[in-house]
Design brief:
Strand content: 15-25%
Structural class: alpha/beta
Distance between the termini: 46 Å
Oligomer: single chain
Order of helices and strands: EHEHEEEHEHEHH
Largest sheet: 5 strands, parallel
Strand order of the largest sheet: 2-1-3-6-7
Length: about 160
């Protein structure tokens, strides 16, 4: 069961997606605005986000500047889809772009791929952290903990680091 955040200003779409997700064994949390979605994201760890582009008086793509550090796959939804909006969504970090009315089969397949991608990204991140902590440095002093924190921050980058 995955935790899915649905952000859409239309109540009928939110409840329809909630039912669709429940039938597939997922739990949906519903938000009518980016602020509501952000408040939910602070207390619930989501596995994916279904995000409408055109919210009342809000650009749904602003979501990407509001989210935290944990990468969560975002499926962008739009009833007024055009190529420029789709490209902008992907450039901002969307996993995929889906047009309304939603095709249930395509939504299901895309969501499955997004959830698997999110799971794999999380697994890689966890393995990197374990590798840094267990293979390269031994020690538990406050200075070593500080060093480990620094290594964890730079480990994903391609930069070389000299520790003296």
């Amino acid at each position: 069961m995955a935790e899915i955040l649905v952000i859409d200003d239309e109540a009928s779409i939110r409840t329809g997606l909630e039912t669709f997700l429940a039938i597939r064994g997922h739990h949906a949390s519903l938000a009518a605005s980016l602020a509501q979605g952000q408040a939910l994201a602070k207390v619930i760890t989501f596995d994916a986000v279904l995000l409408d582009v055109f919210l009342q008086e809000e650009d749904g793509l602003d979501w990407f500047s509001l989210v935290g550090t944990r990468p969560v796959p975002v499926l962008v939804l739009s009833g007024q889809a055009d190529l420029a909006t789709a490209v902008k969504a992907i450039q901002k970090g969307a996993f995929d772009f889906l047009e309304k009315p939603l095709d249930p089969i395509r939504l299901s397949q895309t969501l499955d791929r997004a959830l698997e991608h999110g799971r794999l990204v999380g697994q890689v991140q966890k393995l990197r952290e374990e590798l840094v902590q267990k293979r390269f440095v031994v020690g538990e002093s406050p200075r070593m903990a500080e060093l480990m924190h620094l290594l964890g921050r730079v480990a994903p980058s391609p930069l070389s680091l000299l520790i003296t």
